[in-house]
Amino acid sequence: MKLWWLETRLLLKNRAVRWLGAAYLVMMMLAVGVGYARFQGDDVAGEALKTRMAAEQAAWRHKVVAQGPGSAGYYLFLPAVFAPSPWSALFGGERASHLTQQRVRLLAVHGQIHGGPIRNPELAVIGDLDLGFVWAYLLPLLIGLISVTFVADDRRRGRWSMLQALTDPVGLVLRRLLIRFGSVLLLNSALLVAAAFVAALPWETRLGVVWLLLVLYQAFWFCVAALVLQLGRNAHQSILVYVAVWVLSVWLVPALHTMSKLETEHFNQGVEMLVLQRQDMNDSWDRDKQADFDAFLATYPQWAETSPLVGRFNWKWYYAMQKASDDKVNHLFEAYTAAREHTGSPWRLLSPTLVLQGALEDLADTSARDQVAYLRELVAWHREKQAFWFPYLFNDKPFAPDDINRIPAFAFQPDDAPTTGTLGYLAGLILVAGLVGTLQHLRARRARTLPKLGIQRDASVGA
C-alpha cells in the first residue's frame, strides 16, 4: 500500500496533471450548467404552452355551440409536447435539433408537424455542449495526456533503468495506470453524483447504467494507453500514436458513419411532405369538389351516410380534403421515420465514441429513435382527434359544452431502450485490448529472454 500511496502523491504533485484535471473539471461543470439551463428552459416552455392551450380550449366551451365544430377544428390549437427527461440535462443528444413542442389543429397533420428549420446533418455530428460531449470527446484526451508519457519521461530523466532494477516494470506500469484510472473515475463519479442532485435525477437503475457505461468507456481508453506504452516510444511519438487512435474513433469513423446515413436517410424529407400535402390541398380548390368528396367517402365508408354537400363551401368537404391530402403523403412519412430509425451502419461499431453517445442518448430519451416515436405518436393522436370531431361534422351530432373536455389529449412516454448490447460491446473491446496487450508483453518478454539463452531469434524461428 505504501507504493500505491507514494505513486498517488507523485501523480498529484505533477503540475501538468493538476492543470489538466482542473481544466477537465471546469469543462464538466460548464457542460452540466449549460445542459441544465437548456433542460429548464425546455421544460418551462413546454408547461407554458400546455397552460396557454388549456385556457384557449376552455374558451371554446361555448364557442363551439355558436360557431360549429368546423370553426372549432380550424381555430382551436392543442399542444403536443414531448416533455424532456431530466437526463436530457446531461445528455442532450439530438433533441435540440428537432421540434418537440407543437400546436396542432384538426387540419392535415403532415402540413403542421414538419415545419421546423432545415437541418444540416453534418453540423449535428458532435452535438451541443453537455456532459455526454465531455465524456465522449474530452475524457479520452485527458486519459492520454496523463498516461502515455510517464515511461518515456522516466527514460528521459534516466530513472527507468533504476526503477526496472528495483521493481517489476510491468507491475509498476499497471499500478500507475490503475492509480490514474481510479483518480479520473473518482472525478467523473463525483461530478455525476453532484449533477444528479442539481438536476433532480431519479435514483434508479438508469443512474447505475450510466456509471457502468462511464467505467467501461474509461477502461477502454486506458487499455489503449497501455498498448501505446508497450510500444516503447518517446513522449512525442506516444502522444502522436494515441491522438491518431483518438482522431480515428472520434472524428474519422463518425464522419464515415454520417456519410453512410446520408445515403439512406433524407434528413429534410419532412419539408417535402409539408409542401406536397399543402400543394394537394390547394389544388383541391380548383377540382370538382363533389367528385373528390365522393372519392373520400368511398375510401372511408363509415361516413357515407352523411348529408349532401350544400353551398360553395362546406366544412365536411374541407376536412375530407385535409384528410385525403394527408393520406397521399403517408407513405413518405413511413419511409422517413424508418430511415430516421436507421442506426445499423457498420461504421458505428468501429467507434466506441459513437456507441457511447448512442447509449447515453437512448437513456436520456434524446435519440433519433425517440424523435421518431414522438412523431408517430403525434400522428396517431391526430387520428384520435379526427375520430372525435368527425361525427359532429359528418353525422351532425349535436355538440354539448362539456364535450370540449372530451377531446383527446396528447400524452407521450418514450420506451426505455436496452443498453445490454452497448455494455457487452465495450466489455468486449476491453477484453480484446487486454488480450492484445498480454500477447505483446509475452512477445517482448520472449524477445528479451532468447539472447540471454544464447539463441539466435532467426534460428529459433527456423527450427
From TrEMBL:
Q: Which domain of life is it from?
A: Bacteria
The question of whether Transmembrane is a record keyword is answered with yes
Query: Where is the chain membrane-spanning?
Result: 21-39, 133-152, 184-203, 209-232, 239-257, 423-442
Q: Which UniProt keywords apply?
A: Membrane, Transmembrane, Transmembrane helix
**Record carries keyword Transmembrane:** yes
Q: Could you tell me which Pfam families the record lists for this protein?
A: DUF3526
The protein here is known as: DUF3526 domain-containing protein
